[in-house]
Write a structure and sequence with these properties.
With 138 residues, this protein is mainly α. A hairpin with a 4-residue loop joins strand 1 and strand 2. Helix 2 packs antiparallel against helix 3. Strands 1-2 form a two-stranded antiparallel ribbon. It is built from three helices and two strands.
Length: 138
């Protein structure tokens, strides 16, 4: 009985050490994942180009940027739902907030660009129709 008690104590101690080790490893991996995500955004540049001769500008966004943003939002959300997030909770929350702010800003920019295109198309059509009716173009 003494041997079994010793063996169980040893196994329990060993298991606790393993759990502590893998918890540290998991925290390190999470920290590295956050660093990697932040590093991927360093090389991203949004191209702001003039729209015709209207004095306004549009943001040109590539599909890879949109995909990267979506991927990082999903990864940061999965980190924020993790039971092991406690040491990095503030950093994860800040990063997730920055990603959502970027997503909202880009969404509004795209909606504004669509509206601008629609208004210019209508205005161009009105000017063209007025010119064909002899009213003169604007």
């Amino acid at each position: 009985m003494n041997y079994i008690s010793y063996l169980l104590t040893y196994l329990l101690t060993y298991t606790r050490r393993l759990v502590a080790y893998f918890t540290r490893v998991r925290m390190c991996v999470r920290n590295q994942a956050l660093d990697k995500m932040a590093q991927e955004w360093v090389s991203i540049n949004f191209e702001v180009i003039p729209y015709k001769s209207t004095g306004t500008y549009i943001i040109k966004i590539g599909e890879e940027v949109s995909q990267l943003l979506d991927d990082h939002i999903v990864m940061s959300q999965s980190m924020s739902f993790s039971p092991y997030k406690k040491p990095f909770e503030e950093r994860i929350t800040k990063w997730e907030s920055q990603l959502h702010t970027t997503q909202v800003g880009l969404r509004y920019s795209c909606e504004f660009d669509r509206l601008l295109f629609a208004i210019n198309s209508v205005a161009y059509g009105i000017c063209k129709k007025g010119a064909s009716m002899g009213l003169g173009g604007v």
